[in-house]
Design a protein that fits this description.
2 helices; Rossmann fold; 4 strands; two-stranded antiparallel sheet; about 10% strand; alpha+beta
Length: about 100
């Protein structure tokens, strides 16, 4: 399992309750990834997702997950489906062929 500990509101440094060093130490002692972010300024928000997904991707390459079991929480997608365009509400598109089952979308 890959778990990231996020210290949010890094833009409010004067009102900090936990030091960066304390967060890093706790994460290290508990086998977690640590990163500080700010949702307000978007500092490190995307990087948190990218770093976590990169670790998961590398672990898949190392064979650390049993991808034949749903218990690992990872589903391997159809390789013929690719995501294109920007990600966001109403912006995600794929090149997956439409099914002819008469579904709605």
């Amino acid at each position: 399992m890959t778990v990231m500990l996020i210290g949010n509101k890094s833009d409010l440094d004067p009102r900090r309750q936990v030091s960066t060093e304390e967060g890093e130490r706790f994460a290290k002692e508990n086998g977690l990834i640590f990163m500080e972010t700010s949702a307000k300024t978007a500092f490190n928000v995307e990087e948190a997702f990218l770093q976590t997904s990169s670790i998961i991707y590398n672990n898949i390459g190392k064979g650390l997950y049993d991808l034949s079991s749903d218990k690992c929480g990872i589903r391997v997608g159809n390789e013929s489906t690719t995501v294109t365009g920007q990600v966001g509400p109403g912006k995600l598109t794929t090149n997956k062929p439409k099914e002819s089952s008469g579904g709605c979308c």
